[in-house]
């Protein structure tokens, strides 16, 4: 299956039928999904009906939109009216969505063809994808390994060629980590740029929406269709310009810094070596200037993130049917949420404010910050998350220490393929200051051009 831009352009010109593309995607899902567990729900009837509608528009001389005929996987955390809405949890195994999120609505309006829901760990709270409800999701590069999480089903679906694009969320790295492990592009835009309405329940202001694709241009095309103010999302922002038109921007003279560990994040030496080499190639390719990173993320940021995000999980759990056992991770979130007091909240917000200031000051010294997108290579598909990295013990947040800080600050950050470790991909993370999304994605496109 070809990519988003190629499919859409061929369908819009009448050289390719949306129904043909959609049936091909459905066939690939049927062939590969049982081994990978990427999709948890497929609606072939709806998808084909939607595809035929797109083909009728083309036949009548109408333009279906920039995503015409593109099969789309939808992460199960994103509601689609009439489809299951379990969010990876047995607590909501019988729930059906009564509305569709803005992200999917805008993609459909641009011509996309949703084909089904992709797997997530329960409520998206892990960097691998497995749940008691759906089982284990596996990496197409090596089925013994995880595709990452929490957008692991989307990553596996795209990497396996079932669909060219699938939606995702990123609360602490859940777009960038799967992109890194599956050799894809995963872009967390500036907070608010991709709208999360209607009825998004998150209160921590950490959760970003986006998509996983195989190319930077495919990501740009999607963002040009879905970004922009949404009256149902109080945090939504205007689109910054045209992503696809900005990919060839001149980056000469940019100040670029590299940090393997952000001061306190242990990194597997094999990953650090591959990513550092990729960073050097990017700097040389665009004619940038290397400057020291000199960045250290406060170790208290992990505790702050947990405090700020615990109420989001509590919001889901308090409405759940009673009498069903909670996974240990969710029990931990619930206990944390019910024990949060005013002092803990004040401390968490103060820690976040210090991090924002630290990184704002750092980005006065450089324009882009490069880091590994993941601190370890892909680990076993069944989990657990790493408890030791490079000989150092880590907790949940320590294993996400290169990704979650940029959720706290709301800065744009993208993972693009940097190479492989033992035959499995690892990603380079490119981070920019808030609202520098066009620059970040242009740098990702330059990295892609190097052809690692």
Structure description:
- This is amidase.
- One of its GO terms (molecular function) is amidase activity.
- Residues 21-441 form the Amidase domain.
- It catalyses: a monocarboxylic acid amide + H2O = a monocarboxylate + NH4(+).
- It is an enzyme of class 3 (hydrolase).
- The structure is a single chain.
- The chain is of the alpha/beta class and 452 residues long.
- 37% of the residues lie in helices and 15% in strands.
- The strands form 3 sheets. An 11-stranded mixed sheet has the order 1-3-2-6-8-7-14-15-11-9-10, sandwiched between helices. The chain has a two-stranded antiparallel sheet with strand order 4-5. A two-stranded antiparallel ribbon has the order 12-13.
- Helix 9 (301-318) crosses helix 10 (328-339).
- The longest helix is centred in the last third of the chain and has 21 residues, at 342-362.
- It is globular, with a radius of gyration of 20 Å.
- The protein starts with a helix and ends with a helix.
- The mean pLDDT is 95.
